What does this fold into?
Amino acid sequence: MCDVTIIIVSASGLKRVDFFKSPDPYVCMTIGGKTYNTPTVRKTTDPYWGQNFDVQVTKDSIVEFEVMDERTRTKSLGKTRIRIGSYANFQLYKAQSAALPLKPSNHCTLSVEFRPF
It folds into this structure.
């Protein structure tokens, strides 16, 4: 096990909920059976969160990220999942950043950082 801070930084290029309304996005992160949520950012397709989560992981831990719209609560704006060992090199003890493509559209990205603590 390794203690890591996962920072959900921002997203870009999210789709609108409908033609006239921008989403109220937040991120649900699930790792090891636990779910963590960022605060909601109102009316934007390019939200910034800068939210830190201290978690315990192994190099084989799977992290799932899903960007949701608060108004609909059931509408996913995009999601991705990664194996933590693919993005964080725990031997180096330094921060690492990643821009993760959100599905279903690869035009959306979620920026995250991994930092040992």
